[in-house]
Amino acid sequence: MKQKSTPKRFVAGAKCPNCQQMDTIVCYYEDEVFVRECVECDFVERITDELAAEEKPKDAVTPAQIIKIKEL
């Protein structure tokens, strides 16, 4: 089975929680799992929907509550 992945993109202004270097974090999706990793050290974090749901506060806004605004 082929693994689905999106291009890696740098996050401007992000600081690595491990090595504290600025502008070294890249983010991408790998098989519908959000991944962020540092290009300078060995930090890798995978965030699944289940993990995100556990960390979400009870009064958090759900996607259904977000109103999209169109640019004119």
Question: If you had to describe this structure to a student in words, what would you say it looks like?
Answer:
- It is a single chain.
- This protein has 72 residues and is mainly β.
- It has one domain (1-53): N-terminal domain of TfIIb (Single Sheet).
- It has one helix at residues 49-55; strands at residues 9-10, 25-30, 33-38, 44-47.
- Strands 1-2-3-4 form a four-stranded antiparallel β-sheet.
- A hairpin with a 2-residue loop joins β2 and β3 (33-38).
- The longest helix has 7 residues, at 49-55.
- The chain is globular and about 35 Å long.
- The model has no long low-confidence stretch (mean pLDDT 79).
Question: What's the short version?
Answer:
This protein is mainly beta and 72 residues long. It is 10% helix and 25% strand.
What is the SS-derived class?
mainly beta
In quaternary terms, these chains amount to single chain
Number of helices: 1
Instruction: List unreliable stretches of 5+ residues.
Output: none
User: Between the first and last Cα atoms, what is the distance in angstroms?
Assistant: 44 Å
Please write out the topology.
Blueprint: E1 9-10, E2 25-30, E3 33-38, E4 44-47, H1 49-55
Antiparallel strand pairs: 1-2, 2-3, 3-4
Any descriptors?
mainly beta, N-terminal domain of TfIIb, four-stranded antiparallel sheet, 1 helix, 4 strands, globular
